[in-house]
Amino acid sequence: MTAKDPLPQSRHLATAIPGPKSQELIARRKEAVSAGLGMAIPAFIERGEGAILQDVDGNRIIDLGAGIGVVNVGNAAPRVVNRVVDAVQAFTHTNFTTAPYMGYVEVCEALNRLTPGTHKKKSILQNSGAEAVENAIKIARHSTKRPAIIVFEHAYHGRTNLTMALTAKNVPYKEGFGPFANEIYRMPMPYSFHYEGNLATMAQDYLDIVTSKIEKEVGAHNVAAIIIEPIMGEGGFIVPPKGFLSGLSKFATDHGIVFIADEVQTGFARTGNMFACEDEGIVPDMIVTAKGIAGGLPLAAVTARAEIMDSSHVGGLGGTYGGNPIACAAALGAIETIEEEKLVERARHIGKILNESLTALAKKYPIIGEVRGRGAMQAIELVEAGTKTPNPAAMAAVIKYCQSKGVLILTAGTYANVIRFLPPIVISDELLKDALGVLEEAFASL
User: Fold this and answer.
1) Is 144:224 a contact under the CB 8 Å cutoff?
2) Who contacts 162 (Cβ-Cβ below 8 Å, separation ≥6)?
3) Pfam families under this entry (predicted)?
4) Are 240 and 190 in contact (CB under 8 A)?
5) Exposed e or buried b for every residue in 374-384, given b needs 16+ CB within 10 A?
6) Distance between CA atoms of 60 and 15, rounded to whole angstroms?
7) How do the domains of the chain map onto residue ranges?
8) Which CATH number fits domain 20-63+342-445: 3.90.1150.10, 3.40.50.1820, 3.40.1260.10, 3.40.50.2300?
9) Average pLDDT in the 398-405 region?
């Protein structure tokens, strides 16, 4: 493998976006690829490093999406690349349940060590967050011998049939794809920006509503699991009020229900803790991880109390590619990077810069209704000025402006009016501030 010159960590526009080469490739994509796949930015990427993506026309784009919170350690992180190269030269596949290898075991050992709680834990590995969620539900049902699953408004858990049933938002995730799996019960989710009641009592108010609905409409004794994102991702980076998650966890424990933290988007240093549920000292029975686990390679995991994980019969869990040796090598490189480069602390620093800049923008532009998030996972919700009415048109205009200037940012939200910021945690202060400067220009241009 020949070494390449480092990719400059600076924004640079060689052409308009999309440039002529990207336009040609977009036309080829249209002919060859299903129209059901979206495209956030009209630029074909040929190289990525750190927090910069370079397209085929030579434009260097600041990446504030990290592949939807995947490359937390940056694109082409050296420890990830080196371990992957060594692994792919050794062997590419055996299927762990056919002929095992150490990489799978080492990733499970790392997950058992890093996830919250000092109790005995065990893990299994899959390919994607949705597959991990499917396995988490399967294991919880097998362990408890109960059918019902509790989920929440604004939740996103994946695009398979079961995980679509768990996911709240219809368009684009569920429209026309039903019927969906049954025994899924959706509960109200505290969303402070749209709450008209007393914010001081919101956590307890919602706990009372949710637990009452579970007891009266489902029967707590029928519930296998409660699954929730510690911060809602696709739903718009909704941060639950303090006490809500801990109250749910206690209710689950009291009723023999498996409490599952879906940390697919919030995990691996993203929020300023290794896992978001650590913010309140919550120890879930089971935790689902993916995205940031392997620096860009497909890997996911379920980690839970050993007795829950061991309740399944031999052969009941598995999958051909789950825990592929190349992805395991990448995960070990990503985890090493997070720990050696202190990315948990770095995420808190990035969060401070983001929050201060976005809060200043909100004071200047009344269409920014709320700034929220934690660590390197922040968002702004756009509204009609002076109201809480969603403003998706303003969001679209801001996104388009930023893209044209070489800054990739992502959308989110049940009401399609949230801009989310998920930069690689290795992004420099200078690069982040440059991107935020472009964002301010976007609002000024409205």
Assistant:
1) yes
2) 133, 134, 137, 180, 181
3) Aminotran_3
4) yes
5) bbbbbbbbbbe
6) 10
7) 20-63+342-445, 80-340
8) 3.90.1150.10
9) 98
Cut 0.90: pTM above it: yes
How many Å apart are CA 380 and CA 377, to the nearest integer? 11
Give the H/E segment covering residue 301: strand 300-305
Task: Kindly indicate the confidence band of residue 4, based on its pLDDT and cuts at 50, 70 and 90.
Answer: confident
pLDDT value at residue 350 = 98
- Distance (Å, whole) CA 99 – CA 167: 35
Rounded to whole angstroms, how far apart are CA atoms 308 and 287? 12
For residue 27, pLDDT over 80 is answered with: yes
pLDDT in tens, 268-292: 999 999 999 999 999 999 999 999 9
Query: Which phi and psi (to 5°) does residue 14 adopt?
Result: -90, -30
**pLDDT of amino acid 1:** 42
Q: Is the distance from CB of 419 to CB of 370 less than 8 angstroms?
A: no
Average pLDDT over residues 237-253: 98
Nearest Cα neighbor of 284 from 112, 117, 114, 141 is 117
pLDDT, one tens digit per residue, over 157-184 is 999 999 999 999 999 999 999 999 999 9
CATH class of this structure's domain 80-340: alpha beta
Q: How many angstroms separate the Cα of 398 from the Cα of each of 166, 363, 445?
A: 31, 17, 8
Please report the pLDDT score of residue 3 as a whole number: 61
CA 251 to chain centre: 26
